[in-house]
Structure formats: C-alpha cells, structure tokens
Write a structure and sequence with these properties.
globular, disordered C terminus, about 500 residues
C-alpha cells in the first residue's frame, strides 16, 4: 500500500536490508509487544503482518542463537513469506520446506537459520524426529485463527508445550466464538493480544476504504421450480423425523441435522434413512440456490455414485427429487445456470481493472470460468491441491503471478485464495456466494482496497441460503470485532490471579 504521506523513513536494523522496509510506528509497536511475550498480532489485511514478523525475526536473529520457524497454512502463502524474507533480510540460510521435498533433503533444510514451512510437514517431521522443538527460539503461526481442533497447528503447539521458544500468532481477525478464541490462547500459551483496527490512529494514514455493496438477484423461474420440488422432498423427511420423536426447530437448518447424526446412529436407528436423505437434499438445495444448475447436477451425480443410506430411494423413487433432477437437466440443455452469471458480467464491466471472484464450491469455479470465457472476459482459476482437478503448488504460484502480471483480468478462486495472498491492484472483489463465517468474510474482503479505494460486491439470491448466511455473517462480524478486547480482559485477569498467587506464596 502506498503511504499517504510523503517522505518514507526506512527500517534500520541489523539483518534488515537497507531501504527495503518502510518504517511504520504501528508495526514497530506491535513487534515490540510480540518480542516480549507470547502474543497474537491482530492486524487488518493489507497492513503488513509479514513486516511485523520481519521486525520480530530481526530482533531474534540479533539476540538469540536458535532457529526461527515461520508457518503458514498454504504452500502459496509459505512461498510468499519465503520470497519476502529472502528479498528483505541480509541472511543467506533461509529455507522453504514443503512435503514435495524428500526426507534427506528436508533434513538439511531444517538446519537453516529461518525455515518457512506448511503446518502438516512441520508437524509430521517433528513427530518423525527429523527436527526438534529445541532447534527453535521463535515460532510464528500465520493465519493463527486456524489453530483449533485437530488442525496441524494444534499438534505443533503441543510439541512446543515445554519449550522456552517464543510463540507468535498472526491473523486479520480472531474467531467470533469465545470457545475458539480461548482454545487458541490456551494452546499457544498466549499472554497478550496486540491488536490494531482500521480506525486505530497510528493505522489510519495507511488504510483505504473498501465500499461494500450487496447485490440481490431473483432466481429464474426454472430454478424456483426445482427449489420448490427439493423443499417438498425435504419437508417429507422432516415429517418422518418429527414422527420418530426427534425435536427439530421450525426453520430447517443443515447444521442442526448434522449435529444429531451421532445421536440417531446410537439411539434412534430408524431415523437414519430420513436423516441422511434430508442432509443430502439440504446440500443439493444449497448448491442449487447459491451456485446454479450445473453444480447442482454434479453434486447429485456424485451423491448417487456414493450409494449411501437411502440413496436409491431418493434418486430413483422419490417423485419430487427425480423431477427436480429432470428439470435441472432441461434447464442446463437450454443454457440456464443462475441469474448471478449475467449479473457478474455487468459488475465486472462496471469497474475497470482486475477483479477477484470467490466461490466456496469447486464445481462453481469451473462454471464461472467457462461462462466468463464464453462472454469474452479473460479469466484464470485458483484452487487448492486436493483431488484430481486440484492445482499443484507450482501451478498455484504461477497462476497468482500471471494474474499480477495482467495475463488475465479476472481470477476465480476457492478458499485457497482467501488467506494472505498479496495480489496487488485488485479493484474489486466479488463474493459469488455468501459465507456464514466472520473470519472468511474478513479474509476475502481484505484482497481489495490495498492501493486505492476498493469495491466489494456480495451477490445474494433472494429467498435462498445466501440470505440466511447474510444474517448469520452479520451477527458473527460484530462478535469478532469485540473478541480482541474480550480476550485481552481475560488475559489481564489471569495475570492478576497469577501475580496474587505468587505474592501470597512468597508471604507464606
């Protein structure tokens, strides 16, 4: 981001290349806090979390002898950090460790002063004993909001439980749920949250506006007809579940059904068929409503091939569901997909420059890409590496570079593009579907407005899952905003209890 004031000062520090990093007070202050204690740095996207990490790394290189481990969740992101450190530090022994290297080569790479790595490979190599916690004096967990449940970050944190190494987390936002935020603080033994928002006085000069626009579209009549049939099929399953004594809220939610799976399998077996069928219909309905006809049909094909409980009934006998699929095939043959597609073209053409489109669903990446290409708009695809259609790390990095270099104007991405990717000069970000997660919303939004005012457009199909997610998202966003403050209060209270304890122990 270009500073809005004229003469930029540069960071002057041992190990940092001269005139390479602009000096910003808020970055220096956050780094100073992180050097002193295990800390989570919360800083909005585009304001240089990696530069804060660089400050801390330079301090540790000067003061300590151990190695530094810099973790990030995707290979593209690890590669980005590796390139950033290589071009801004005067150090030669910085390595990049991913699962694509054979064990003998990795063993050598782990001995470098700074190692950038993906969490899975770091965790696995710690378990294998190729690398030990004792090698490191500093561990940085980028996108630390992921350090929950059985994600690899948790396994790594466990290994560092009795280590004196400094642990630092970095994120654009803490989770909106208190349990998740607390879990992260506990796992990484965090003593403080160092937070800045767009409105912090020392950050203000460096931020740009991002204007958000919610664009409503009506489903075309063909999709409404399919939607109606799927809802009828769903109602039938809900009736059976209620007759079987399962208490379900009036509004039909997929998460509520997913929560009772274990209970049904253990204690109410006769409900298994209606439950698993209802879950399948929910998925099919959500995909139809938010993504369109082809993704819906592809989902159905896959579900049918898996042959689970009640699949035969649903795909061959159920009159509503089988008719829904027939109507889908008819719509597809007439080129009808979703009203979001023509809207996309209109939005992209209304703003000059590059656009980044996010969708949560891989099939809809292909659909959007194909439709844009048909409409004469040059586009590229960025998806994760899983599955046959996935992009390997090298290809992902190449795609991002081609987009930066202007080989195509629009990048269509799944979740892999949400976190930390520094794609300069994106004039607008478009959410093809809405996400009921504050973390993912903030991550996606942060891909625009880095150089000048950015525009964010969220497409919402009326009377669909998009609208439901809109309200859930709104609620979670306001909860996430206050989470840093809440966690700071919790940590301060804990410290007060600790200091009272030690004072009393000393007295006794």
């Amino acid at each position: 981001m270009i500073p809005l004031h004229n003469m930029a000062e540069f960071v002057e520090k041992k190990y940092v290349k001269k005139n390479s990093i602009e000096k910003r007070d808020y970055q220096v202050n956050l780094a100073n806090q992180a050097v002193k204690e295990n800390c989570i740095v919360v800083l909005p996207t585009g304001l240089g979390k990696t530069a804060v990490a660089l400050h801390v790394i330079a301090e540790y290189l000067s003061a300590c002898t151990g190695g530094i481990l810099f973790l990030a969740p995707t290979r593209v992101l690890v590669n980005q950090h590796y390139e950033f450190l290589k071009s801004n530090l005067t150090l030669d022994d910085i390595s990049l460790v991913t699962g694509e290297d054979p064990i003998p080569k990795r063993t050598k790479l782990w001995d470098n002063s700074i190692v950038c790595a993906t969490p899975e490979i770091a965790r696995n190599d710690l378990i294998r004993g190729i690398v030990t916690p004792e090698q490191f004096t500093l561990v940085i967990f980028d996108e630390v909001h992921r350090a929950i449940g059985d994600y690899a970050y948790s396994g790594i944190a466990e290994r560092f439980e009795n280590s004196p190494a400094r642990l630092i987390g970095m994120t654009a936002t803490l989770p909106s749920e208190k349990e998740k935020a607390t879990e992260i603080l506990t796992k990484l033994r965090i003593s403080s949250v160092a937070e800045r928002t767009e409105n912090s006085p020392d950050v203000k000069p460096y931020t740009q506006e991002t204007n958000t626009e919610w664009v409503n579209v009506e489903l075309p009549p063909e999709l409404k007809a399919i939607q109606k049939l799927l809802k009828l099929a769903l109602d039938e399953r809900y009736d059976v579940l209620r007759k079987n004594g399962i208490k379900l809220a009036e509004q039909q939610s997929l998460s509520a059904l997913l929560r009772i799976r274990q209970f049904v399998l253990n204690q109410n077996r006769r409900s298994a068929k209606p439950l698993f069928t209802a879950i399948r219909i929910h998925y099919a309905l959500n995909i139809l409503e938010a993504h369109g006809v082809t993704p819906f049909l592809k989902f159905c094909e896959r579900a049918k091939a898996k042959k689970g409980v009640g699949v035969k009934d649903l795909f061959e006998v159920d009159p509503n569901f089988t008719r829904a699929i027939r109507l889908g095939e008819e719509a597809q043959s007439r080129g009808i997909e979703h009203s979001k597609i023509p809207k996309l073209k209109e939005i992209i053409e209304s703003v000059p420059g590059k656009a980044l489109i996010f969708t949560s669903y891989r099939d809809s990446v292909d659909l959007i890409y194909n439709k844009l290409t048909e409409l004469g708009i040059s586009a590229g695809i960025l998806i994760g590496k899983a599955g046959d259609a996935g992009l390997k790390q090298k290809k992902q990095i190449e795609t991002v570079q081609n987009f930066r270099d202007g080989f195509f104007r629009v990048l269509v991405a799944t979740r892999v593009g949400e976190e930390g990717l520094d794609i300069a000069e994106v004039n607008q970000v478009i959410f093809y579907d809405n996400v009921p997660s504050s973390v993912r919303f903030i991550q996606r939004r942060g891909r625009t407005g880095r150089k000048e005012t950015g525009k964010l457009v969220v497409l919402i199909a009326k009377n669909t899952i998009d609208e439901t997610y809109y309200w859930i998202g709104k609620r979670k966003m306001s909860a996430a905003k206050s989470m840093g403050k809440k966690m700071t209060q919790v940590l301060e209270k804990n410290q007060e209890i600790e200091s009272k304890k030690s004072g009393l122990d000393a007295f006794l």
